Fold this sequence. Notes:
Blueprint: H1 4-9, H2 11-20, H3 38-49, H4 61-70, H5 82-93, H6 97-105, H7 111-116, H8 119-133, H9 147-153, E1 157-158, E2 161-162, H10 176-179, H11 184-196, H12 201-215, H13 228-234, H14 246-259, H15 269-281, H16 286-298, H17 305-308, H18 323-337, H19 346-350, H20 352-356, H21 358-378, H22 386-394, H23 405-417, H24 423-429, H25 440-447, H26 454-489, H27 491-497, H28 499-535, H29 539-558, H30 564-567
Antiparallel strand pairs: 1-2
Helix pairs in contact: 3-4, 4-5, 6-8, 8-11, 11-14, 12-14, 15-16, 16-18, 18-21, 21-23, 25-26, 26-28, 27-28, 28-29
Keywords: Ubl conjugation pathway
Pathway: Protein modification; protein ubiquitination
Family: Belongs to the NPH3 family.
Amino acid sequence: MMQFPLLSRSGLLKKLIAESSNEDGSSCVLDLHDVPGGDKTFDFVRRFCYGVKIEVTASNVVSLRCAAEYLQMNENYGEGNLVSKTEEFLNEVFSNWPDSIKAIQTCEEVEPYAESLRIVSRCIDFLAMKVYSGPNLFNKPKVECDSSQNQAQDPALWNGISSETNLPPQGDDWWYEDACLLSLSLYKRLILAIEAKGMKPESVSGSLIYYIRRFVPLMNRQSSFNEKNNVNQQGTNTISNSTISEADQKSFLEEIVGLLPNKKGVTPSKYIFRLLCAAMILHATQSCIDNLEKRIGSQLDQVELVELLIPNMGYSVETLYDVDCIHRIIDHFISMYQPTTAATSPSITEEAALIVGADALTPMTMVANLVDAYLAEVALDVNLKLPKFQALASAIPDYARPLDDALYHAIDVYLKAHPWLIDLEREQFCRLINVQKLSLEASTHAALNERLPVRVIVQVLFFEQLRLRTSISGWLFVDNLEHSQNASGNLGLLRSNGNNGQQQQQQGSDNLRDRVKEIEKECSEIRKELQKLAKTKKSWNIFSRMIFRKNSSKFCRESNGCDINTSSSAMNGKPNH
């Protein structure tokens, strides 16, 4: 039997009683199953109507406000009714960060009513405004202590509140921990509201990574030895909830990936790689995986080698590492930095570096070095097929590699790990190398590398001799120029000396002719040896040692002391002679 104080303050109960009253005055029973907050909240309402003191907190004010609205406990049914009281308390809650976090967490229990009363949106707006404004603008107490004692000790205190700002400095991540207390739907709305207010994308990205690491344990896996200390340091602030199902983890990951800022470099590449690996393990949608691969491709020049070594997680594991994934990432990068006039003619390819400009050349070169280092790592995998290696190496344009030393090293590692390749495959494989772009150390190593085809070795020797001839021609030109300058500068002296000057000039010309004849003789010997080398491979050892001991050692020692015996150490490995 409903009592009078309750009926007098609730318009809904008063209406229901009037409709259910029997004409004979007998009692009636009302079943209220839809009261927001359930029995516990209705008990608070009952006590309020009977004048019993109740404790309204940030944890129950939302359900009380919704119940008051449902029961129509407004000012029409008594001054200072429950609607006005709870609304007044909500305004106080929405001026305090910790209370707002507690209040919004309870909104899910009464979601339809909280949404209709705009309690959720008001709370989201307040939280977003505080995040954007900074932690020092809300009245969060610094320490809990006796205000009267502090006031006596510190004259700067007024009514227990410090007039000076002595709060310790806090970074942009001060709100990450509290935001993790929200459900995914509320957190998503908070992030969108924060972005709408113009929050820095770096802070938004940091919060998203912090949030996903709370609910997807795969994000906390140690991916390399270099990250060991970093993972341990963050372990105290990161909770891996292993009770979450894989389906829920997949939903979390896909939602978070969709919220990541699009600005390049905002999200560290190591976390994008972790997201990608987690997406593969959890079998996320293809659009989610494509999104992550494109993000990595857009900042591939900022990636470290260890991050590219993604284990192969496919159903048919053929290779140790996921080479296909890395190939797609490289293609995304190339599509962004490749010149718009993507022609295949050699003349345009050689000038491509000038077309793309200096700003794009540096990232392209960095990626070329990264890919070559990656090729050297995956080349050790005996299951890596030759076409996959060739496709990955060919994905980088030729102009992106100032030198082909790193590519040559990767190819040498592959040949060593795959000794069963036939000569034709080796010859086609080595066409990836531009022998004209090998350094002196790499050329010396290649000339003594028995794993290379004879044709490649001949090309290396031929272009080394061209370089040698060009260098000598340059020296002769300088000598000739110096003689000409000396002759013109000492013109008066030559006239006075007469025959002595003519004799010196004649002697210089004779020396020049002798050096030219010597070079021509060496070139003739090279042609003969090349013809012999084409007939048999056995003559290679004699030929290479004769040429390099005679020419390369002579000029290498003059420039930084490089000789044939020590050049192999520059290639990060000794060849098998």
